[in-house]
Structure formats: C-alpha cells, structure tokens
Amino acid sequence: ELFLAVMYKESGYNPNAVGGGNSYGLCQIHMSNHSMLRAKLGISSFTNPYDNMTAGAYLLSKYFATANSVVSGSDVEVYALNSYNMGEGIYYSSCYSKGVLHRGYSNSVIALRNRLVSTGGI
Q: Are 113 and 17 in contact (CB under 8 A)?
C-alpha cells in the first residue's frame, strides 16, 4: 500500500510523467540516480512502467534500510519517505540533522496509504 501511495503522490499513476528537476515515470526517478540504477538493475527506460517501478522499489527499500539504522518505530517510514523525496543526503543535512523529521511529503504519502487501506482506493 505504501508503494502505491508513493506512485500516486509522485505521478498520479501516469507512467509518462516528467516532473520538475528531471524526474521520470510512475515513481519520478530523478536523473541523478539513472546511471547507478542502469548499472545496478539493468534499467533501460525510466518511462517504462516495469523498469520505473523496479527502480522506485529498489530506492525505497534502500532508504528503509538506512532509516532502520538511524531511527526506530514509525519514524522509520517517515525517514525513508522523506529520503525518497529529497535524496537521503539532502534530507539528512537540511532536515533531520536540524530536528525536522516530518515533512509535508511524508505526511501526505502516509495519509494516502491510510486512505487506500481504509477505503480500498485513493
């Protein structure tokens, strides 16, 4: 459910979405990640829904792994989501290290997920 909420927040489920800052597809994969994801996962097209979701799931799981070593409990989800949105280094240095855990992005994705779970749709 969380991954579906991320895709909805990022692109409204539009596989051809192009966002500000050169982000592409369902999961809005930023171009700064493209070369690493091509090498690591063999991604060929960031607008291909399968490749894009593979990349998004990989990045989100990577941020969850890091979040588990930094925070605990429900904060893990919040940290991972904000890292996904901003990039982990930027989130850590500009928010988390300054005492800001929650942001509008994580709050919105969690609310979307909760609505999906409670009503069966977003």
A: no
Residue with tokens 């890091």: 66
DSSP letter assigned to residue 101:
-
**DSSP track, 46-95:** TTSHHHHHHHHHHHHHHHHHHHHHH--TTHHHHHHHHHHHH-HHHHHHHT
Q: How confident is the model over 24-34, as pLDDT tens digits?
A: 999 999 999 99
Instruction: Enter the pTM of the model.
Output: 0.94
Phi, psi angles (nearest 5°) of residue 19: -100, 170
Contacts of 17 (CB under 8 A, 6+ apart): 10, 11, 24, 25, 26, 28
Nearest to 15 by CA among 53, 54, 55, 60: 53
